[in-house]
Description:
This protein is mainly α and 229 residues long. The chain has 9 helices and 2 strands, in the order E-H-H-H-H-H-H-H-H-E-H. The protein is 66% helix and 4% strand. It is elongated.
Amino acid sequence: MGNEMRRVYVWQLPVRLFHWINATSILVLAVTGYIIGNPPAIQSSAEASFGYWFGTVRFVHFLFAYIFFFNFVYRIYFGFVGNRFAKWSNFIPHSKEQFAEMGRVFKIDILQIAQAPLKAIGHNSLAGFMYFITFLVFLFQAITGFGIYSAMSNSWFPKLFTWIVPMMSGDAYVRVWHHVMMWFFVIFSMIHVYLVFYHDYVEGRGTISSMGGGWKFIEKERLKEDVTH
């Protein structure tokens, strides 16, 4: 770009841990959830008591459901106590500048009729808003998942979500919507990975490595402009 760059600490360790735990949980939940919804007919001559593979799949799914949920709860908390890049104000647009930035990002990422690098140091406004929608889907998946699980569990925690089943007109509808939203995560993950690589290549700010070490490389002029605002 020709501008002198400075290293800026953007993503704190709790944010990075949330990201990777969440990514791992979604991957495991999507794979095991798909198998649970569409179990393959595996034939074996072994003793039935040695063939508890489907029970293992269900156990892994339930285990990672708990990990996913409490990791999400911690991220909600950290949205209030983290640095300015982690706070909820980045995810819910509330100013003219944020709405204007959403328009610029739409032109760059979606329409690709502009090539100017984005000014955002953390999440840009459109990405932040999409993450907010994703958080709502996280909540929906947790509620419907534990609602389904409550019918087969004696634990008190899943019982907290039994209300969702009658609210959505029965267990079958809850299962269908829970499965449909799984595909939301599949599509979102593909778009997310593409855009991360795209911005890393176009802007050269270390977008990919920042979720490993927390640092980004930002133009000095951009930092001065950010301070004045």
